Give the backbone structure.
Amino acid sequence: MTHIALSIPRRFSFFIFSMLLLCLFSGCSGGSDSVNCNYTATISESRAVIRQALEESGGGSMSVALMDGDGLIWSEAFVNDAVPAGNTPTTETLYAIGSVSKVIAAIATMKLVDQGRVDLDDPLVNYLPAFRMRSPEYRDVTVRMLLDHSSGFGGTDGRNAFMSAPFSGSAAQLMETLRGERLKHGPGYLSVYCNDGFTMIENLVEAVTGQTYPEFVHDEILAPLGMTHSLFARRTGDLAPGTYAESYVNGVLMTPEFVNLYATGGLYSTPSDMARLAMMLMNGGAVGTTRILSPASVAEMGTDQTVGTFNPQPSDFIRFGLGWDSVSQPGMKAAGIRGWYKNGGTLAYTAEFIVLPEERLAVMVCTDHNGGARSLNTAEWVLLRALVERDAIAAMPEPLTAAVPPENPEPPDNEEAVSGFYAASMALYRVRFAMDHSLFVDTYSDGEWKPKYSGLKLRTDGWYTSDEAPLSSVRLLTAEGRRYLAVRGPHGLGHYLVHVMHSEKLETKPEAKPEWEARAGETYLVSNADIHDLALMGEGTDPRFMLMTLPDLPGYLFTGEMDVLDASVDAELARMFLLIPQNNGRDLSDIRVVPGSRGGEEWLQTRSTLYRPLSGVAELPDGVSTITIDNEGHAEWRKVPAFGSISIMEAGGWALYDSDFEMTASGSDAGVAILPGSGTVAYLMVTGMPASTVVLDLKE
């Protein structure tokens, strides 16, 4: 978690004082219900805060809108002159709003509810009879569970999700993927962030209406609200040069980025357009005479859906509504205001959307990748400053300070039981105690244990806290026979604490099946990725999939990204098993052996992505040769020399890697590549249409 150590109001205290005289003539009157507030001070000070946020984060641009139930108050785009030159954004410049799109997906679903065409608590199979999973409980997954993250789906089928070209088949792909998947928990048992639930909304909408999801959203939501600068990028021309904000990561231009999970995160929009959506929500489902939803549906979206689910350490930061991350945004709650909150992020963009339903005030912040480091702080600051100006709160909240609670004189007698290894999505931890009963938490990274929390003492409030960092604490808890770590710490502007479920203890298991022990010594290569897939094949990505075991944790299997699986039960299936609500148990998946022999090789599958063993990759001969793509269109890999050149002819796509699997060249058609010029070997991946022939000419 991050927070601002310096109070922004103090930093700008002289500026604020100078603005007070202006506010005497142009500010608000009549309290929080005033319609006479022009927010002059808020706008002026926010400009300085945004420029500071871009400077500190290294972001290239940020676009912001402040709105109330009556209309747009302020909208402006900002650029950081210190980043690589690109297009200069305006208030009409598009940004991918990522998972803020989930709010639109919830609105689309609730519109069908209002029309009597969908019931939230009906099983999904009532509307999608073809929906199947390996777990028989899939029949109990309801429409509501797709929207409140409690379906039990693994998390995200990310193949083809973020691409440099449009792909319209993600929803159909997920339906097929789920046929081979198990549920990670019983439907409705707990809520943990799940993109797949929202992608399934696309299938639901099409089955019920006969329209594609983008068509339905355009006709029923975007067009009626006048959101003319909002679109799903389904065609290459939808992202014309100059219409979208450019985003750089480590100096590399990331856009255009086609986010093909439309309901999950695929909308491009502007803060000004999102002001129209916010107005509709703040006005109980209507803007003027245009009604999108009933007041009851808007209220249901804003109702805490986690009540009654397994959630041992509730968190205001993750208190799911329908489509919302939280219906009790903690930065606003700390000021006595109720807020609905949704964050969005793609490979290239970040967005923050906060709506205050009772205050009828909202903010939307869109920024590029680097600017995302300060996007939440900015959104909170703009709203809180507006609340001050309209007299809804007395003053800007100050960052928290805290005295260390007294030590508990009687440390628990179960230190041995809670010591050990804990895991979360893409993370492995070790908990240990010193002789003086102080707590240490280490994280496993790059093959070694590194300190994360050190020397924490048990306090009278039940949390372990250090003297040096009294606002950051760890709690050990047991719930339904499982042990967990929870953490708390300052967040956003630093005026509140966020409590979250952190990780789950790994219990002792039998030895891993010998077949998985053997696979842990193999490296696998992605074999069904599109060359345009930015997440799997983009610059800086690694096409390898590696498994490992750790001597201290028999029975468990770990991926290169540190996801943990149970390898002790089935020689053909390594099982996901973590049950962590909120966010840290997200995006889990089984790893299974692909049935049948693929050219004499054993392939692995996780979600819809297939991997073939590196040991089976043949050498490419010198001179002209051909490769035949199989009938399913899988990529072919070849070892090539480290020096020389290669001509690729009649290929659908190709990528060249050095011996460390860093991409050195790629193309989506024919081309000539200079081999890396270092190391002892390089690797070429080629793709094409099923049963097509790729012609290559290698010159050492």
Q: What stands out?
A: DSSP finds 16 helices and 39 strands in the chain. Residues 617-699 form a domain with the Jelly Rolls fold (CATH 2.60.120.380).
